[in-house]
């Protein structure tokens, strides 16, 4: 269930610790901005659940992780494969 935020955007999942954007792998770049916006609006940590539907989508996860690492972005990435989230090694 999406949560309406003060600036009119909608956070996909909001927990006590995280403001989470959920998106398909090919939307990795948009997910960065959305997760950071949600974090700024809520005071929680930014996170992305990236839905990886097939092996060829692994490249999108690599791109996402590369941008996060090269800019030291405070975003947690949880790849979603075959019905499960798997934490990555990032902030």
TrEMBL record:
What's the domain of life for this entry? Bacteria
This protein is called Uncharacterized protein
Q: What is the source species?
A: Ruficoccus amylovorans
């Amino acid at each position: 269930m999406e949560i309406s935020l003060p600036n009119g955007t909608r956070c996909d999942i909001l927990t006590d610790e995280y403001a989470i954007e959920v998106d398909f792998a090919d939307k990795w770049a948009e997910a960065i901005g959305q997760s950071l916006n949600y974090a700024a609006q809520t005071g929680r940590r930014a996170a992305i659940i990236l839905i990886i539907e097939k092996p060829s989508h692994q490249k999108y996860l690599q791109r996402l992780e590369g941008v996060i690492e090269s800019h030291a972005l405070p975003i947690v990435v949880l790849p979603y494969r075959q019905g499960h989230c798997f934490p990555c090694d990032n902030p």
